[in-house]
From TrEMBL, chains A, B, C, D:
Protein name: Germination protease
Keyword Protease recorded: yes
The protein's enzyme class: hydrolase
InterPro entries: Pept_HybD-like_dom_sf (IPR023430), Peptidase_A25 (IPR005080)
Assembly description: Homotetramer.
GTP-binding in keyword set: no
Keyword terms: Hydrolase, Protease, Zymogen
UniProt record similarity statement: Belongs to the peptidase A25 family.
Pfam families: Peptidase_A25
Name of the gene encoding the protein in the UniProt record: gpr
EC number(s) on file: 3.4.24.78
Task performed by this protein: Initiates the rapid degradation of small, acid-soluble proteins during spore germination.
One term of GO molecular function: metalloendopeptidase activity
Proregion span(s): 1-7
Amino acid sequence: MFNIRTDLAVEAREMYKGGHAGEIPGVLVDESQDDNIKIVKVTILDDDGAKTMGKPIGDYITIEAPDLRYRDIELEDKVAQKLADVIKKISNVNVNMKVLVIGLGNWNVTPDALGPKTIENIVVTRHLKELAPLQFGENICAVSAMAPGVLGITGIETAEIVKSVVDKIKPDLVITIDALASRRVERLATTIQVSNTGISPGSGIGNKRSAINMESLGVPVIAIGVPTVVDAATIANDAIEHLESALKNNVESGSPLYNVLKNMNDEDKYALIREVLSPEENLIVTPKEIDLLIKNISSILSRGINLALQPNLTVDEMNQLVH
Amino acid sequence: MFNIRTDLAVEAREMYKGGHAGEIPGVLVDESQDDNIKIVKVTILDDDGAKTMGKPIGDYITIEAPDLRYRDIELEDKVAQKLADVIKKISNVNVNMKVLVIGLGNWNVTPDALGPKTIENIVVTRHLKELAPLQFGENICAVSAMAPGVLGITGIETAEIVKSVVDKIKPDLVITIDALASRRVERLATTIQVSNTGISPGSGIGNKRSAINMESLGVPVIAIGVPTVVDAATIANDAIEHLESALKNNVESGSPLYNVLKNMNDEDKYALIREVLSPEENLIVTPKEIDLLIKNISSILSRGINLALQPNLTVDEMNQLVH
Amino acid sequence: MFNIRTDLAVEAREMYKGGHAGEIPGVLVDESQDDNIKIVKVTILDDDGAKTMGKPIGDYITIEAPDLRYRDIELEDKVAQKLADVIKKISNVNVNMKVLVIGLGNWNVTPDALGPKTIENIVVTRHLKELAPLQFGENICAVSAMAPGVLGITGIETAEIVKSVVDKIKPDLVITIDALASRRVERLATTIQVSNTGISPGSGIGNKRSAINMESLGVPVIAIGVPTVVDAATIANDAIEHLESALKNNVESGSPLYNVLKNMNDEDKYALIREVLSPEENLIVTPKEIDLLIKNISSILSRGINLALQPNLTVDEMNQLVH
Amino acid sequence: MFNIRTDLAVEAREMYKGGHAGEIPGVLVDESQDDNIKIVKVTILDDDGAKTMGKPIGDYITIEAPDLRYRDIELEDKVAQKLADVIKKISNVNVNMKVLVIGLGNWNVTPDALGPKTIENIVVTRHLKELAPLQFGENICAVSAMAPGVLGITGIETAEIVKSVVDKIKPDLVITIDALASRRVERLATTIQVSNTGISPGSGIGNKRSAINMESLGVPVIAIGVPTVVDAATIANDAIEHLESALKNNVESGSPLYNVLKNMNDEDKYALIREVLSPEENLIVTPKEIDLLIKNISSILSRGINLALQPNLTVDEMNQLVH
């Protein structure tokens, strides 16, 4: 069956809700709006919820700011601050913890480069605390950062590299940053998902990720993701569904046409979509200006993370520590 | 009406042929196949042909090598050589001419950066012939090259910049390189179109280009283009057409369903597509590895152009002259 | 004779002053200090001054902020504002003028890429005023921008390209940005020179520039430059001079040793330096972190220029207009 | 005392030989010339040799090809082949080994980016052998590759990251690539050193490296390095020494001047050099076109390594496997 691709819990829920009344069993949802920023917290409570949603038990907080598509420094600052708040809320991070920030994805593939690009502006301090403990003392969080690359570039599973470094430097918390696939173009580079479940196998837009989570690492993992692409198959699927729905509205229930449409099953649709997109696999849909959008949103992510991890540093001090 | 977007003459013809018997009036087509390279020459003979095709009178030669999607040095060399042959055939270029090569497009937008990337490896000699005429003498073609950027970056129409430089340095021939939009994903980075009509207003994937042609510059213009994106709207449209066609095949002609489908006009389709893609404009579909594909095909283009313009230089000599 | 290389008027003056009492005839100097920013205005009044200084008659204002080597957002903002003030003072620019900003230098050579990098963040508005005169009306300065490349890349003299575009779009003012050579390492990326004389032949760190000035373009030219390299020959020369001076201080005037040293002429020194640096020409000295320094100082330059040209735009509005 | 900085064994030997007759005790030297490529093998036999040379016991093979400064495809191919030969000779690598290639250095600092740039074109196969053992079978060497970054970027000692990954994936051989400092400008980007001693603490041009060798990793380590910078202090020192020597030749032995010069000790010289270069530390001397040189030499390195590790793959097959 054709599977609409999404890495966002809010969209997995929307898709379910589309065909059902009431909330998903085993799932709690809490929404709030602050001016032009919407916060949606989806909590998967139990195995039922996890199964329906196709995602592990845990919290998924989404920060949605559609106006990020227009440059607006004030909004960008606000979203960065909101991200910091969400990270602090979901992780109980504090300056006494050692934190490892991991930028997942392939730096050679523009929409997959979000993680590595974000890492570039993380305030890295672990070595400074070791080299100059008096100057970088107790009020500084010991942060390290790396972009491990992807399997096709290194020949090593990303999860293997992360696991080996975690075992070596023993952080108290791991934060991952990853580019995601969404099913709605309006979410591209305007929505941030923060979850305490880590990375599940198969998510992310690049080479399918292996699990990077509490279970695999033995350390809590906060996963931060931003959708940067929509699968081309999703666009084709949406077009077909819109046509179906338009046709159905124009024919009487019970008529022969209605029955044809009703009986067109997922396999038929999948075959159609494959035909449209053949012979390419891995076709993605992005806004033309994706290079610029990645640059902006990665800057917001790094600011948010820095604010969460280093409450005792001024912006100037952070800038001096960024390379 | 929704307009399927293509910059390729072979596709404009295919789309017309799809609904009609026989060749397009005023259009000649000649095809040949050399192993895994197909050459299609579309000649638009008169105003009738130009109107139907939506393109100016002239020759459009397409080099199609689907296997370019797999790295194959031998095939790449062969395509570069074929491109050189086509350029020589379509332009009567010779080493006594002064040639200006223009890389169109926006270097900050990966799929639009084809032109600027190609320029990087053009063998530039105009200054050498002036500075050292004895060493770089009569058997060297005087080549200059530039990437003028796009309107949004410079505030100046690309055509204005090109025109002003052409008026100043007075080349005998202008060659442009541009990223195109195709309607078939299998043509992305595997098809090269060479035409002697120059650039028409509105073509190219970036900011719509103004005319850069014999009429505007007073100099012959060879336009080389490679499709690097498909409009997302094209994918949505194709999905809808496939569904229509599938449904039509399942219903009897004259039945009520058939009539509904028959009567679904272009405007209905356009409205559907807009709904699927809203609110983004400028959504593009590309293979995920587009960064790499652009790198490879731009290298083939520069080699082909260098071979066409500098028949008296060895590959080593060319390499020493490339920066 | 070996010629210490500097593009800074303040250094040309220092070098003269080193061997002479009093100010240079035909040259006025005015210094002021504002906290950690020093402003030096060198005015070359007449041909005598021009000949001694090796630079054309005109004003050369230098902004020196040695602390720029440490990231300090407040200082960076202050220097950007100071640059805006200096530009406005030296050029009588106003929002009714059409301004063309030119980023000189080779984007492939890190320390020469200052001009092109600065251009990336210039607020470009010329096309907006033409396309949407009501929205981008009388209070917006019509700014265009380009990085014409260097002779080795384009085969065309930079001055030719600039001249042809200026003739076409007829700006009221041209502003150039260029990487310079200094003779003092402490000035690298910490000193900005603004002059109303344009670019003289032979200056800049890249391929020697041709003249880009009022005389060649028919339009006033403000040249903004920042030293990014010291010639390796300068370092070698300084080492030798320090040794000479140390030796001279240790021997009595009139002694044989003193005479030997006194008689070691410039040619001897030049031969020594050539021997040290052979066989490379074009050796440059830079701080190891030059990539980062170029990024920071180019950001300050673009902010200062934007502030000078667009007094009626907010920072947010500028950001939305930058690509 | 001022220490002339070199990471090359051949230069450490030259510096010693400058002041002494005969070969260094505990050191063997073997030179051969093949057209325009010179191979020098320096073997440090015992602790005496190690102490004098300031380098660990082992083999250091240097490939010197001064003509690499001119683009010459044939020479580049020859040097790549020679590098493959040297690697095979010094390491007894074979296709049944698992090899990890490490690109040391900071990708944001042009002359330090040699290692990471080389990694980009290494044929990576470890995952393919695991995923498709039948297709990528016994005749393919299992190669993985990574660029771990530098301490200032990650907050983690490079050696720690390498050690943790080596412990995890257990390669049979580690190959490191690193940018070096030379004391001769003519060696920049034209000399390749291959040694079986691994990386000693404090070498490399970037942040001083920690040891990456047999002792620290428990696996043989082949270190490949190319000089990309000369310390500015070396240039200043050379200038002073040339002057000294010139002066000494002009004065009689025993004269007062001769004695002054003779008594000018290393500390005096060091003070002079510090004065010339103050206040910058970390000043480097490079050719202006260093960006281009790094690109070329890193391509030669990756080709040489690929040839050594994958004798059973054709060039086309390698290209298809490179990302």
